[in-house]
Amino acid sequence: MQKTSLVKNIIYKILLNLFNIVIPLLIGTYVYRTLGAHSIGKVQITETIYNYFFIFAVFGVYQYGLREMSRIKHDPVKVNQFFSSMFIINIATSLISFLSYLLFSYVGYRGTAYFPILMMYSINLVCNIFYVEWVNEAIEKYDFITVKTIIIKIIYVVLLFRLVKTTNDYKEYAFLLILTTVLNYVVSFIYVKRKIKLDFSNITIKQHIKPLLIVVVFSNANVLYNQLDRFMLQYISDAAVSYYVMAQQMMGIINTLILSIIQVTIPRLSYLSGSKDEDSYLILLNNISKIYSAFLFPASIGLLVISNASVLIYGGAKFASSGPVLAVFSIYMISVGIESIQSNQIIYVKRKENVLVKLVFICGLLNLLLKVGLLQMKWLSPTTAIVTTTITNFLLLALENIFIRKSLKMNYSLFNFSKIKYLYFSLLFIPISFVIKMFFTRPTIYFFVTIMSCVVVYGAILLFTKDEVLTLIIIRLRRYFSKYSKT
């Protein structure tokens, strides 16, 4: 694979996630203001319950399939046989999860306002059989993923404005979320089947079960982290869940865009690690980490300083309680970003996921105990929930880093000056925001003036210090426009 191919894939991934940012920003305000905290809270609680069963339906096939197919993608016979094995496993886990979900929903929520929405979400578990997007990522078909997702999102937006108009339309909103997922699954499956054939001549099931079980645990760490928060907040109120989820989604919009850099390099890193090209692996890993840090730290600190203004603009005054929650989520985003590099690009790529599972479980169990303690003492709130989750996630990050240095003995650090300097630069946003707030009190004006000021200051620092990440971006842009002008 050529370097230019990786750059092209990153561009497609960023374009896709930019679109995934624009759409929620355009319609998020409409959805939250139209449905309100209690109605949208019903959908989000239902989605939280569904996610627990979805974990077992997917059964780690996405992450495991992506890594393993990336290693064999140049062998068509092995690809067909591996895909067929994963497809059979996916059918079995989807059907078992579907039946278990129906039983749980009927026994636990029959006769409640959640039950009709739970039944709608059961459709996703059946259609999970066709969830093969991991194949497109493994063979690096990011152009198809981008175009497909954009078209389906446009359909979703059109239908949303036609069907969701009052606080009572939360069922219609849930239906559109499900419809979008189903369309994504089916279209991707049709596309993949044109390139990869089902070959049952050498099916291997047993050898994949153990690694899949391990992947299920570490790739679904949010069960003991964010998903746990959402589940336990339902005992406070529907509104408490909506305050938490709103802040989580706003952080997720930014985090998804930045994580594009990591997600798109996992197949390449897996391939290099599998081919024993350790030098190339470390060079790519360090370069990607440096670029990622240059975006992660300013995005996190920037989100921190505009958190209160953001929720007022996004959801209105009735969602003002989400401001402190979003502020903590901005710090949480730093831990998520660094942990994602350590777990996905190092520990998982090096096939040490068994160690990762133990670390995730230890910190997740601690998070569970902290939540139970908060609930018993009546201190549980959206803010305290994410505070304890942030603490345990930083602990997980620290334990992973110790393992990487002591056991893997890798010549790699996320905390050297070439990466951490971007955090120091970004801390200037805090005094800048205080000064701006002295002159601009209206949330909208404060929001835009703060963003523009921080971007200008951060860009000026990078230019003054002749930062290599900025230099690399400028060189790439010059080459692109030079090539474009000649055609």
From TrEMBL:
The chain crosses the membrane at residues 12-33, 49-66, 87-107, 113-132, 144-161, 173-192, 212-228, 240-262, 283-306, 312-334, 355-373, 379-399, 420-439, 445-464. PANTHER family: LOCUS PUTATIVE PROTEIN 1-RELATED (PTHR43424:SF1). It is a multi-pass membrane protein. The keyword Transmembrane applies. This is Spore cortex biosynthesis protein. InterPro entries: Polysacc_synth, PolySynth_Transporter. It holds the Pfam family Polysacc_synt. Coiled coil: none annotated. GO terms for cellular component: membrane. It is found in: Membrane. Keywords: Membrane, Transmembrane, Transmembrane helix.
